[in-house]
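Morning run. Coffee first, then this:
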Amino acid sequence: MTLAHLRESLDSLFSAVTPEIGRVLDRALAGEEVTVDEAAQLFDASGTDLVVITAVADQLRKNSVGDRVTYVVNRNINFTNVCVKACGFCAFSRGHLAEQGYFLPLEEVVRRAREAWELGATEICVQAGLAPGIDAWHYVKLCQALKEAAPGLHIHGFSPEEVLYGSTLAQVSIRDYLSALKEAGVGSLPGTSAEILVDEVRDEIAPGRIPTAKWIELIQTAHELGIPTTSTIMYGHIETSRHKAVHLSILRDIQKRTGGITEFVPLSFVYEEAPIYHRKKIRGLRSGATGAEVMKMYAVSRIVLNRWIPNLQVSWVKEGPKLSQIGLMAGANDFGGTLINESISTAAGASYGQLMKPVEFRQLIHEMGRVPVERSTTYQTLRVFESEEIPPDPLDQVDNPKERFGSYQELVRLKDYRFKDFYRSRKDS
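And here it is:
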């Protein structure tokens, strides 16, 4: 096939788009907003329509943020897996007397943070289960200790569910609890606990989870106090195209009001160890998102959110490095973090999550013809890597990360951090 024939084929491909889809894409390219109904149409697309949708998303990405692909050097610290709730999609949580329930003491969390700082991390992401019996101000005290030990590290924590839990235990308002967290050193909040921001879906997959209105209130209050947040979605279970479209619209509306969202992170449902998948009690439950659904999620998210939330992150933990790399062709511009330890997706059956070295990010990004950029949590540029000829980072030189940092499977077997021992000591004191 000659170049001329190839161009003719591409022209015919674009001209073959369904008229309804074509009108939506034309409006998006013109900078107009996509409605909920139109976004749902895009999520339902397949075949040639899907190819063109991803191409449009990629062009919008290029227009908005260029060819730079960012990543952050960070460490996840999931300090306990014990939770008072039993969300059906969560394979991470354990009951308070479970043999695999753990609770990292303050000094161990601080040690992990210091180690991350020494290895070049600029962020620690602190999230966990809602452990019974903890001090109502535990999250605040944790931040104070972390800031004292490693003042240069950005603290990215805690989830809206955790903030609500802490404020309830302390019997103070969400605003007051968030203010205390900010004063203690929290730099930003993960916009997790979102799943699908439609209560009928939440009631099915996680009854008792923070309701949509409360999630919105908490996120907006954080923004009003000057605490930025990320935003997420978890999809690939029972949600419909319209549910996903509504979710994106809610995030867009929040951003219009506050401007406090730094990025959007689609997270596909990891089903292998999820309790709801094994119970088989929820009608229509799927075994995670397909590859096509993943690409549609990136592409439609870029098309809907582009003007308001320009940073779209692939999830190498959920999708693996290869599919995440292809996600850069569907509108994404961020590769997330190095993590060092990731426990929540790992517990659910994800094959990845231990560590992605900075050099691996850079290689994946360069292979796509893009420019790797190390960023801060709030997307300030720290280093730009135009060339592959760069000296290794301290984290690049770590061998056997599971042996060096431990794994989730090892952590739940350790006797030193049994939550039931901590719980009993709290009851006795």
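The two ends are 79 Å apart (CA to CA). Good start to the day.
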